[in-house]
Structures are given as C-alpha cells and as structure tokens.
Specification:
- The chain is α+β, with helices and mostly antiparallel strands and 862 residues long.
- The chain contains 14 helices and 39 strands.
- The strands form 8 sheets. The chain has a 9-stranded mixed sheet with strand order 35-34-37-32-31-27-1-33-36.
- Helix 13 runs parallel beside helix 14.
C-alpha cells in the first residue's frame, strides 16, 4: 500500500470510529438505589393487543354483573338544599340514569353547612340524551343539605355493587338486548336476554344471564380481535370452554361454537350441545385450534352461545388455553408475563381507562363477582358501553410480585375517606379488619406491605386534564383568584380532594410511612401552581412526592433527511437537563418541586419527584404518515428511550420511578389526521408475531444493567457538539428544539452490585461510530458479556406500516449477546445502545484457609 493510501485509510478510520475515553470511578456514587425503568400497563380490553387475560373472553363481562358508575363534579352555580346543576353541558346519559345513586359533598369552597351532606339521588334531567346537545343536567337530592349547594362544592355521585342505581342494578333487560354491559346479543324470533337475581349458582355474584328462547332463539357473542391489523390472540392448541348453567324452563338446547371469521385458516370448533340439567352445574368443553402465522389471516374471532326451545341461566363464562406455564400464577397469559419479565420494570403503574369508576368494594371482590366500571364524559351514548373489566387489586399485586416490580397505583378521585382507609387495610391490614380479611380470603395471608419494599400511591391521573371531565377536577374559572404567589387555579379542587384522601390514609392504624409513597400529580407544562398548596396543606395532607410527565417530540414539520428527523429528538433529553427555559417545562418543574421543603405528613421535608408517564408524543405538524410510523415505533426511538430516564437519574439523583407509557396499545388517532403507532411497547404477545417494538428492546437492555448503585463514569473531552436550533421540530413549535451547547454524542452510565458491574453505552451520533477506551478503577476484566441493539437504520419497524396488516411482519431489529475476553476498547456503532456485564473477582477455597478468599483477576492453581 502506498503512503498516500495508508494515510487515507487512517483518515477514514478516524472518521468512522471517533475515539472517546470513559473513566470509571466506582467509589463515587451518583444514585445509591436507582429504580429500574418502570412501565404503565396501558389499557385492558377485548380488542387489539390489550386483551391480556388467560380468559380470552374475560373482558366481555363474563360474570354478567351489573355496571358500576362513579362521577365527581365541582358545582359551578348556586343550587338549593335539595338540587344542583351538573357543571358539564355536554354530558350524555339518560334522564333519571342516576336515580338511587349515593351523593356525598366532600369539600366546600365557602365553608358552608352543606359539607358532609349525603343521601340518594331521586331524579336527574338530561336534554342531551340521546342525540347530544349543550344543556346542563339538574339533579334532585333525596335528603336536604344543611345549606344550599354553592360554587366550588365538590360532590361525588356513585352507583356501585352496594349502591343500586335503578338503571344499572340489576341490569335492565333492555340493556342486554341493546348490546350494553359488555354483551353482544344475538336474538331472533322474539328471543330475549333477561337478568336473573333469584336463582344463582354457588360461585355466581349478584346476578346471572337468562337466555330466554321460549320463542325464537336467544344468544350472545363474546368477541376478540376486532380489526384486521393483526391476529392479536392466536388460537393454537387446546382450549377449555367453561361455564355454569341451569335450565330455567322448557326443554332447551344450548349450542356453542367458536371460530374466526376469515374463511380458511381460522380456528373452528363445535357445534357443542352439552346436556343442561335443572340444577346449577359447571360444564367444560375442549376446543382445539391450529392457527398459524402463515395460514391464518387477521379477522374477528368469537365464542357463540345460542339457546332454543326454552330458557337457560348461564354465568361465569371462560375460554382459556390448557397446558400453560404452571409458574404463571397470574390472570394474564404466559406471553404477557414473559414479556414483562424480559422488561423487568422497577414499577408497574396501574392506570386504566375508567379506573376512576372503580369502587374499593368491586376492586377487591373475587373474580367471578366483579363488575365492569365506568366514569366520566367519555361514556357517550350510554355509560355501559365503555365500562372496563379491570384486573382486581389482588390480581394486579400478584402480577407485580411475579415480575419483580413495585406496585404504582392510581387511586380513584371518586373515593370517599372510608374507601381510602379500606384500601390501606386491604394492602396492610390484618384479619381484624374487613378488607384485611378480604385479602386473606383471596389467598394472600401476609400483608402486601411485607412483599414489596414500597407501594406507590398516586392520587388521580391528570385530574387537571379536562379530557377526563366527570372523573377529574380540572381548572375552574370560578376558583379563588386571590391566592398568591404564582397561583393560576389549576389545582384548587384537586388539592382539596387530595388533602382529604391523604389525611384518611395517614390516620389509618395500618398505614406505615416507610412502606407507602403518597404522590400528587402535576401538569408538566406549568410550574409553581403546586407550591402554594404544598405550603398550605393541613396536617397529614401533603404529598411525599410530586409526579410529572416527560413526553418528547410532539411536533415535526421537517423530515427530508434522517438528520432533520432524528437529531432534534436525540438532543431533547439532554437539552431538558441543562436548559432552564426548557420548552416542555420539565426542567423548570423538577427544579421547583425538588426545592420545596413542604412535603410529608408534617409538611416539613424536601419533596421528591417521579415521572408517571413518558415516551414519544403524538406528533403534530406536517409529518408524513410514513415518517410518523418511524418516529412512533421505529428503531431510532431506542436512543431517547434508553437515554431519557438515565439522564434524568444522573442529573436529578433523587428522582424516583420513571414509568414509560405504555406496555400495550397498538395505534391511536393522530392529531394531524395520521395514525399514531402509540403507545405500546409490544406489537402482540401470543398473537401472530410475538414482536416487540425497538423501544421495548432498549428498556430491556437498560433494565438488565441497573443492578445496583449508579456510579460515576464520565466520558472525556472531544465528545460533544453544538446543536443549532431547529424551529420546525420539537416539544413545542414554536420555539422548536432550542440551540444547545456541548451536547454529548456518547453517554456512559455505570452500575455495581458487590463485585458485579454493568455499563450502558449510548452512541447518539446519527451517522458515525465511536470507539470508547476504558480508564479508571475496575474497568472491564475477565469474561465480559456484551449486549447490544445496533439497527442498520433509524427507520426500521418490527411491524407493518399504518394501513397494512402486520401479522406476517418479521422483526427488523434484534438484541445481540456475546461473551468474550475483556478489552480496553469497544466500538459503538452509530445510533446504538451497548451494555457490558462483568465480574471483578472469583472466589476460591483451598486447603489450609478457613473461609473464602476473593482475588481480583485471574488465578492459576498448580
């Protein structure tokens, strides 16, 4: 080779692999006990990838229990002692829907005698039903309050398993026929579906369903996989159809079939015609499916139940695979649990649609006696349509225990003080309490506080968010305006409801402050609003922690090149840590809340912060559908996913759990008429592909490395660049992503546990590889396991583009793992995440030595 050729080769090598030094100093602690990256559940439903139950039809109210519905409102006009006007002029529920509901006035703005008023609703109007409108409903109360209801009074109205609203409990026969309450009816020739409350089986709850085919036929359908994007739950193996039944009258025949409506390739079993008797009994039938990824197209699937020639009671329906993993003691399918074990989240946050409709009574009942729950104005057409069958509290805690995650639970804003006490006693109480006894009867003898180091309890998810009207306490124009300093009214109602809940919790005999974290939710977009309410909190009422969100990259208008598309997003996590004028307001929020010393029971300790949700935002702007797919679910997202929580941890060492949103959800509507591939980390689990998104892989890599204390390992000089402002793309446009100086290209995060070490190396350079040389103390030694995700492009998907079925799409990104001898250098490909695992020493025992000797490095014994 000529001298010129050699020089050129050396130059190209320098460009393709830029060198940096990482200096390890494991004597310098950054975070003593860091949290692994947490995860939000997402949602539970019968469609898409949020159908997670072993009982595949378990989201369709298989117990036929009546709906519960809980609302919270703030009165915004003066009422009377026996009436008030609902504050939401677009609420859409039937007249007298809430007859029989219990009302409780829990807080009053003007200190009136109506505080504590309770009774039953006797009527409600609603001119908006059923076609919509803008008329506020009026409620009539059965028991007069001590004073007229006034502006700022907070009132809770509830229909629950023990508070029977006449339109919900027992379920009206017409609801079944109208496809409400989780049931899809299949009626012909005069057949009926009716509610049975008098002749119930041993495991039935408060009601069963009657298939009344005295004339015609009467049936129901339990669907899953409602779209053609994917096979979300593939039927392959032996499944058991299980149910309880009894003849009510006549000589009926019950016919059961199961199938996927796709022509060829879908499972089909039955028809089965079990012999039903005049006594309640449980029936089981085996159904075999042989669906495959290649031969089965996506399509709706279901179990079909039809009665003829008489009437039959049925209850507790199940369709569940047999021969599954016996170590999976949860109610979720093996594939779901296996994915969660791979993620190994530090916390698993329970926040699910309509969770504010959950009563503590319903949440802690045995599975066969639980109801679907509903809350808020999103229940258009009829509240029963959107009710959710959510995991019971016990079921959720079992899942947390199984995957090694601490519980992080959103507490419904619609609870009363007694509900919060019962909640604590379910978690921590003994057999002398009603709810401690409930837990014991469900099989968990020891208090859950003995299982988990900390149980995190946040009060109401985004109560400031008007999207959740009817199940939240959003900003109110009539809130007091004279409060200073820097008060904008956003938290007035929420704070006063929070005071009541935290005081009830802290004064319960079984509350232990060392085992619980009480958390207030804040809007990241504004700061200082909480400061007044922290300093003004009554005794026992202030939170321990303020939680904020950390979504990123919400507007994209410039996307012609990868540099334009991705670099602003890669810069954003760092920009937030150094920019006191961060456009998202994340930096300002954490800086303010961590400076407050008004948290805790006595209101005199430094506040902590958590991140309750974070992840890719819903991109607005002119971004194309193709590029939005990449931004939402593509391989470039591995960089901000791995980087954001680690940077936050490093810059704010006291930060607590950071919960990614979310484990499931495949698509959502985009704000710019595109489809948003948000917010799930999985594509499907137990479906056609079992694929996960690249962000899942990034979290998996990082969490496996967070083995203990985070220690110092700075990257040396020559590792930064000055980012030029991008006014077209960013968290908020304008201003876009601000100019930011000295942005690192390579990041290093180091963890230790005893003699074990794990290093996380992130190359955020969009085009160039970097070589890292290790220096300092206890650098990689012995055998090193290298784990890595290094996609060939930032624009790879592990699923099909929006608008196309993804059931045959292969994984485009992969995690690699290899072991070999330690080296003082490593090459990091562009836009990659690499981790190194190694041990500092080996333990040997030899004759003449008592105990164990630990020796660093290699040992040769001759």
């Amino acid at each position: 080779m000529t001298k010129r050729a050699i020089a050129l080769a050396l130059f190209l090598t320098t460009i393709s692999a830029i060198a940096q030094t990482v200096t390890l100093n494991d004597a310098s602690t950054i975070v003593a006990s860091p949290y692994r990256i947490g995860m939000n559940i997402g949602d539970v439903c019968w469609y898409s990838n949020c159908n997670m139950l072993k009982n595949i039809v378990g989201n369709n109210n298989p117990n036929f229990e009546p709906m519960e519905d809980r609302r919270i409102w703030v009165v915004d006009s003066t009422g009377t002692t026996t009436s008030f006007t609902g504050p939401i002029n677009y609420d859409n529920y039937p007249p007298n829907y809430f007859v029989g509901a219990q009302y409780n006035v829990i807080s009053v703005q003007a200190s009136g005698a109506e505080l504590g008023c309770t009774g039953l609703v006797t009527s409600n109007t609603n001119a908006n039903w059923p076609s919509g409108g803008s008329t506020n409903p009026t409620f009539t109360l059965g028991t007069a309050c001590g004073a007229a209801l006034g502006v700022g009074d907070i009132i809770i109205v509830q229909c629950s398993p023990t508070v029977h609203c006449s339109t919900l409990n027992p379920t009206p026969n017409s609801d079944w026929g109208n496809n409400y309450n989780g049931v899809v009816s299949a009626l012909s020739g005069g057949g009926l579906l009716t509610t049975d409350t008098t002749d119930l089986c041993a495991t039935c709850g408060s009601q069963a369903l009657t298939l009344d085919a005295t004339v015609g036929s009467a049936g129901i359908i339990q669907y899953w996989d409602s779209d053609t994007n994917d096979i979300w739950v593939m039927i392959n193996g032996t499944y058991q159809i299980s149910f309880w039944a009894k003849i009510k009258s006549g000589t009926p025949t019950l016919t059961i079939t199961g199938s996927r409506s796709v022509g060829s390739g879908g499972f089909a079993c039955g028809p089965f015609t079990p012999t039903i008797t005049g006594s309640w009994a449980q029936y089981t039938i085996n159904c075999t499916g042989a669906e495959t990824q290649g031969a089965t197209p996506p399509g709706i699937a279901g179990i079909y139940w039809t009665a003829t020639n008489g009437a039959i009671y049925i209850d507790n329906l199940s369709f569940q695979k047999t021969g599954t993993d016996p170590t999976n003691t949860s109610v979720w399918r093996d594939e779901i649990i296996n994915d969660l074990k791979l993620l190994h989240p530090g916390t698993l946050r329970y926040w699910i649609t309509n969770q504010n409709g959950l009563s503590i009574d319903n949440w802690t009942r045995p599975s066969t006696q639980r109801s679907a729950s509903n809350s808020g104005t999103r229940a258009y057409g009829q509240p029963a349509i959107t009710g959710r069958m959510m995991p019971s509290l016990e079921e959720y805690l079992v899942i947390c225990q199984l995957i090694g995650a601490e519980p992080y639970i959103e507490m419904p804003v619609t609870w009363l003080a007694a509900d919060f006490k019962n909640f604590i006693e379910f978690l921590a109480g003994d057999g002398t309490t009603v709810y401690g006894t409930r837990r014991i009867n469900l099989g968990q003898t020891a208090a859950w506080t003995t299982v988990f180091n900390t149980i995190h309890l946040d009060f109401c998810n985004e109560c400031w968010n008007s999207t959740f009207a009817g199940e939240a306490l959003p900003i109110r124009a009539s809130a007091p305006s004279s409060v200073t300093p820097a008060y904008n009214g956003i938290y007035w109602d929420y704070a006063h409801a929070m005071y009541l809940s935290f005081a009830a919790i802290r004064t319960d005999a079984f509350y232990n402050p060392a085992k619980f974290e009480l958390i207030a939710n804040a809007q990241t977009a504004q700061t200082y609003g909480w400061d007044y309410f922290l300093s003004s909190a009554p005794a026992n009422s202030a939170p321990d922690t303020i939680e904020v969100a950390a979504y990123y990259y919400s507007t994209v208008n410039q996307f012609s090149t990868d540099l334009q598309t991705w670099q602003p997003e890669f810069v954003t996590p760092f920009e937030r840590t150094v920019n006191a004028s961060d456009p998202l307001n994340f930096n300002q929020s954490l800086t303010d809340y961590l400076a407050q010393t008004t948290c805790g029971a006595a209101g005199n300790v430094t506040c902590r912060t958590n991140v309750y949700e974070w992840g890719a935002g819903t991109e607005a702007g002119s971004v194309s559908q193709t590029v939005q797919d990449y931004l939402d679910a593509g391989s470039g997202d591995i960089i901000p996913t791995a980087l954001l929580p680690l940077l936050n941890m490093q810059h704010w060492p006291v930060i607590g759990p950071q919960n990614r949103f979310s484990f499931n959800e495949y698509t959502n509507g985009g704000v710019n008429a595109n489809t948003a591939k948000l917010w799930g980390a999985i594509v499907d689990a137990g479906g056609a592909t079992n694929n996960v998104r690249p962000a899942f892989q990034a979290i998996q890599l990082v969490n496996q490395s967070i083995i203990g204390t985070m220690f110092s390992c700075p990257v040396g000089s020559g590792n930064t660049f000055n980012f030029t402002a991008n006014t077209n793309n960013g968290d908020a446009v304008p201003p876009g992503t601000p100019a930011t100086a000295n942005v690192p290209l390579v990041y290093a995060y180091c963890f230790k546990s005893g003699t074990q070490r794990s290093l996380v190396l992130i190359n955020s350079d969009v085009s160039a590889a970097h070589t890292v040389t290790f220096a300092g103390t206890n650098t990689p030694t012995g055998t090193v396991t290298t784990r890595q995700i290094a996609p060939s492009s930032m624009n790879l998907l592990n699923e099909a583009h929006s608008g196309s079925a993804t059931n045959t799409t292969a994984m485009a990104t992969s995690l690699t793992s290899a072991s070999g001898a330690a080296s003082s250098t490593i090459n990091l490909p562009a836009f990659s995440v690499t981790t190194l695992d190694y041990s500092l020493s080996s333990s040997v025992t030899t004759t003449g030595i008592n105990g164990t000797v630990s020796i660093a490095g290699s040992v040769i014994i001759r």
